[in-house]
Amino acid sequence: MRQNAPDQSMLDVLVVGGGFSGLCLAIKLKAAGLNHLVLEQASDLGGTWRDNTYPGAACDVPSNLYCFSFAPNPDWTRIYPPQPEIEAYLHQCAAKFAVVDAFRFGRCVTNAVFDDVQACWRVEVDGGKEIYFSRSLILATGGLSRPRLPELPGIADFAGPIFHTARWRHDVDLAGKRVGIIGTGASAIQVVPEIAPLVARLTVFQRTASWILPKPDGPVPAARRARYRRWPLLQKIVRVASFWRHDARAIPFTRMPWLLKWLRPFFLLPLHRQVRDPILRRQLTPQFLLGCKRVLLSNNFYPALCRDNVSLVNTPIARITAAGVQMEDGEEHPLDVLIACTGFYSAEAGVPFPVSGLGGRDLNTVWGDVATAYLGTSVHGFPNLFLMSGPNTGLGHNSVI
Description:
Elements: E1 10-16, H1 20-31, E2 36-40, H2 48-51, H3 83-96, E3 103-105, E4 109-115, E5 120-125, E6 130-139, E7 162-164, E8 178-182, H4 188-195, E9 201-205, E10 212-213, H5 222-230, H6 232-247, H7 250-254, H8 257-262, H9 264-267, H10 269-274, H11 278-283, E11 296-297, H12 301-305, E12 310-313, E13 317-320, E14 324-327, E15 332-334, E16 337-340, E17 355-356, H13 363-367, E18 385-387
Parallel strand pairs: 1-2, 1-6, 2-3, 4-17, 6-18, 7-16, 8-9, 8-16, 9-12, 10-11
Antiparallel strand pairs: 4-5, 5-6, 13-14, 14-15
Helix pairs in contact: 5-6
């Protein structure tokens, strides 16, 4: 066990999490000349874009916005970047700014305690196998880092493979199988069109119909990429214009919701054009105002649901059985594989390990049922603790990057 005294190995900043925000912090802390380390529980950096390797995984924010402002990438091949390109971009940034040495991989933080006497944070890794001391602690654990499996009776009884999209089982061959998808959120609308042509039968279990709008995606022409490389200012202008175009979406969401209600028929046009079956169309029609939940982008989800081997089930699930999924009306859907597209434990669900501040107060206990933070970043009673992607900082209209 390594347990150095605070005055022997004191860091200026200790960062937990090696995803987008952890990497950004490593770059900026190095530039500021601060003594820092980044602890990452996985074997490599990348966070969300390292873990989510399911078929069709891609971003729903334009590539010129989904990158650091200080590190534009002129070589995006698509308007909306796919997962492999985003992961590669993160590694390129780590190499370009030479910050890999600041990362400590395979370090699972299990406890963080503020030392009132020494005025520093004491952070334990793997139950105390390693101890780090730092004047400041930044949690960059992300809002999409803890997959959430559905809390359904009998889920442990299912006889076939069952996994979350963020833990995709590439060893499971879906060809010719009866596959069930639980959820119709952001990952489901990307997975379903990719696997529908492969499987014998695909059953999609939907709790709430989402707003799904067209995705203005497409390849970035080689000539445009060449112009961005030659004139970086051009790409910056495009980025700024894209930012303000997306930011303007907050106006109807927060100030003019009546406008969204008035435009509802217009937003439903893609559904009416792509789904001819009136029953299926009714099942897919959202019953809430656009913007109350995450707006999804897809050009091929609706057509995939119209395939002969795909069915959408709206009846609530009663339980999971060894052979499939049983609905509340008694109908059972036999399945060989079950895939959960059920989201993540967000920042509002608390921090992923015990964090004790002044007087030994536990952060998750202080938060209780409602997590709050000053500007989503700092919490009273927890000195020099800072949160990335903290409470109420998630965006529904622009790029969090």
